[in-house]
Design brief:
439 residues; mainly alpha; two-stranded antiparallel ribbon; 20 helices
Length: 439
């Protein structure tokens, strides 16, 4: 179920159960608008650090509409009950946050309550942003308030009853929100604690990479980083439960964070591409810390795997006659970019990244969703321009052909075919059809 749908249903449903008395106790008043921004109160160091922190939090990803001004809002997030539009977070006094005091900004970031006292839908990840320290919160505010003000009258979010009852989110917050920064763990290294601060705070990694409960709250404990979803894509597990055929190393993760691609795992696609773009702007020590933290969720004693041997085995596998059509599709549409050289080397091509499909996590996953979406949509907006793009095959291949192609590759890699794949392709084709997109 769509994440936004789950959150709204969870909040409103719980509100109905617990009653209006609880909601009355959770009303929040308006914070008076400020008359102007004292830009001179912000130091150059604050603004510079705020710029890095905003990149860490991927703010522009959701607050920038396609073709629109950065952070001016209007980015549509479809749900079955209507479209939620992101807000303008430029310092425009009329349509943005130009009249927001720091107190109003901090309340939104830590408690999910806007300046007027309305609950924000948890599509905005304030449950993670609440972990930001006071110093960093002030620096984020300083950066945003010193950027160009953009007047942008974005569409209003107008969901149907009962999903338009924002106060229902108060109950969801009671169950899922613990406001305020989290202290370092004394038994861990400073690097690990810094990585935890990035991943669990502004990075909000678990928002996508952890599963959700019946009311769309993140599952905790052993479920943390066990895999989730984002914008219709599967977010793979960051733990040892990953489907990756080759264990991630620190070198793999650092390369992925810096460049948006790992030669032994694949390219950042879908909603992960802009995240990788933001991560590349962080200082090297922060990337090292994030790597240290993420790898602590993986089995440190995992047996090493010969990646090149896997590639050579897949490239030389003999297909059964029933797979002939799938092989022809691969040879015609994929092989020029995705085949290895005779030695199974993993080097990128001169025109961009050329990931090895035999090592790609999506090809080894239990769910075919990401592999199907990559074929249907291609990669039109990579994390970095030098990675090159992948064309969409939406109009070049039928549902049957895409299913034959992907299941042939699975067979080549010694994996079972995905069940009911043709039906899955048809479903995802309809869901991702640009003609059905919300504008």
């Amino acid at each position: 179920m769509n994440l936004v749908k789950k959150i709204i249903i969870g909040g409103v449903g719980l509100a109905a159960i617990l009653g209006a008395g609880f909601l009355a106790a959770t009303q929040h008043g308006e914070i008076a608008p400020q008359s102007g921004i004292a830009v001179q109160d912000f130091s150059a160091q604050q603004i510079a650090n705020g710029k890095t922190l905003v990149a860490m939090g991927d703010c522009a990803v959701c607050h920038t509409a396609k073709g629109g001004a950065e952070n001016a809002g209007g980015f549509p997030m479809p749900s079955p009950f209507g479209t939620i539009y992101s807000t303008n977070i430029t310092p425009d006094p009329e349509t943005g946050i130009g009249r927001w005091s720091y107190e109003a900004f901090e309340r939104a970031m830590r408690h999910g309550i806007d300046r007027e006292g309305r609950h924000l839908y948890p599509a905005f990840p304030y449950t993670a942003f609440t972990r930001v320290t006071d110093t960093d919160m002030h620096d984020i505010y300083a950066y945003l308030m010193t950027q160009p003000a953009v007047k942008s009258h974005n569409p209003e979010t107008a969901l149907g009853f009962p999903f338009n009852i924002r106060r229902g989110i108060a109950v969801w917050n009671w169950m899922n929100l613990t406001p305020g920064p989290v202290a370092d763990i004394a038994s861990q290294t400073p690097e690990w604690n810094r990585g935890a601060y990035i991943a669990e705070g502004l990075g909000h990694c678990s928002a996508c990479h952890s599963p959700r409960d019946a009311f769309a709250g993140e599952k905790k404990g052993s479920f943390h980083f066990a895999g989730g979803s984002a914008e219709g894509w599967d977010a793979p597990a960051l733990t040892s439960a990953t489907a990756a055929p080759v264990p991630w190393t620190s070198e793999d993760l650092l390369q992925y964070f810096r460049t948006g691609v790992s030669e032994r795992h694949g390219v950042a696609a879908g909603p992960m591409a802009p995240v990788a773009h933001g991560l590349a702007q962080l200082p090297e020590e922060d990337l090292q810390a994030l790597t240290s933290y993420i790898l602590s969720y993986k089995n440190a004693t995992a047996e090493p795997v010969d990646a090149q041997a896997l590639v050579r085995k897949a490239d030389t596998a003999q297909a059964v006659p029933a797979d002939a059509q799938g092989l022809r599709l691969y040879q015609g549409a994929c092989m020029s970019c995705h085949s290895s050289d005779p030695q199974g080397q993993l080097a990128a091509s001169s025109f961009g990244s050329r990931p090895q499909l035999a090592l790609n996590t999506n090809m080894h996953a239990q769910s075919p969703n990401n592999a199907v979406r990559a074929v249907l949509e291609g990669i039109q907006a990579p994390a970095h321009a030098d990675l090159g793009t992948m064309p969409s095959f939406r109009h070049a291949m039928s549902d049957t052909q895409i299913a034959e192609l992907l299941n042939t590759l699975r067979s080549q890699y010694g994996l079972p075919e995905w069940a009911d794949l043709k039906q899955t392709v048809a479903k995802l084709r309809a869901e991702t059809d640009p003609a059905n997109a919300h504008h």
